[in-house]
Amino acid sequence: MSFLPEDLGTVILDGGLATHLETLGHDLSDELWSARLLMEDPEAILRAHLDYFAAGADVATTASYQASFPGLMRRGRNLHEAQALMQLSVELALQARDTSGGGVVAASVGPYGACLANGAEYTGAYDLDEQELLDWHRPRWEVLADSGADVLACETIPSYAEARAIARLLAETPGVNAWIAFSCRDDERIRDGTPLERCAELFAGNPQVVAIGVNCTSPAHIKSLLARLDGCPIIVYPNSGETWDPEHRRWRGIADPTEFATAAVQWRDAGATYVGGCCRTTPEHIRLIRERLG
């Protein structure tokens, strides 16, 4: 299955992998987040992928978002073992796809801030410059680029310098396809304050980039942000509408899957080709999106 079959129409992404794993009873209050289960309970990740496919998702996004070499090695894994765990994240998604009868596997490439586990992925306030970010991303990128995944999901990008580093990695690996999704703080800008249009320009017209868009962002900002993207397929998978309190490490607010699915129709009508959910969205969100978008 190619990433965007011409007859598929809107591509339905999955929802929050970690969110569903927590629903299944797993405590992910750990700097590795869902990647911890690659070591402790990979069958749980497989089940979560299967549940999203059963709900109507066309795409399984792997549990590699927070699976960095530094993070895994801090947990006692050596270089080879860390690489094997990243590969395992893709193998689990591939197994779920094959069991479910088809779909796309997107290898998650989380931002540098996710490895820091200090909230920097929501601010883009980094202690590395563009070259250092390129060097930090490259080892994991090379593993995931050669993992058998259909596409690399470069997601929750909060920093313009990090976006530039990812653009350079794409140039280094011409056989790799990717989508690029930025995390935004308002109707106009990504987390570090850079206008979304300026970030999107880094990837516009690049044949390796299957879509550009927004994730890990409040649904309230999505329609305005979509209007700032032009000339490329658009991907959108926001948070549920709840907000993350980094000080107390918990979510605040209440979100309705039905309202989220209704909004997904608006996003599709505003130009989004790829639609799904991020943090705090569940298989029920995806089931309703599939129902509404057909």
Automatic annotation (TrEMBL):
<dbReference type="Pfam" id="PF02574">
    <property type="entry name" value="S-methyl_trans"/>
</dbReference>
<feature type="binding site">
    <location>
        <position position="279"/>
    </location>
    <ligand>
        <name>Zn(2+)</name>
    </ligand>
</feature>
<keyword id="KW-0808">Transferase</keyword>
<dbReference type="GO" id="GO:0032259">
    <property type="term" value="P:methylation"/>
</dbReference>
<protein>
    <submittedName>
        <fullName>Homocysteine S-methyltransferase</fullName>
        <ecNumber>2.1.1.10</ecNumber>
    </submittedName>
</protein>
<dbReference type="InterPro" id="IPR051486">
    <property type="entry name" value="Hcy_S-methyltransferase"/>
</dbReference>
<feature type="binding site">
    <location>
        <position position="216"/>
    </location>
    <ligand>
        <name>Zn(2+)</name>
    </ligand>
</feature>
<dbReference type="InterPro" id="IPR036589">
    <property type="entry name" value="HCY_dom_sf"/>
</dbReference>
<dbReference type="InterPro" id="IPR017226">
    <property type="entry name" value="BHMT-like"/>
</dbReference>
<keyword id="KW-0862">Zinc</keyword>
<dbReference type="GO" id="GO:0008168">
    <property type="term" value="F:methyltransferase activity"/>
</dbReference>
<keyword id="KW-0489">Methyltransferase</keyword>
<keyword id="KW-0479">Metal-binding</keyword>
<feature type="domain" description="Hcy-binding">
    <location>
        <begin position="1"/>
        <end position="293"/>
    </location>
</feature>
<dbReference type="InterPro" id="IPR003726">
    <property type="entry name" value="HCY_dom"/>
</dbReference>
<feature type="binding site">
    <location>
        <position position="278"/>
    </location>
    <ligand>
        <name>Zn(2+)</name>
    </ligand>
</feature>
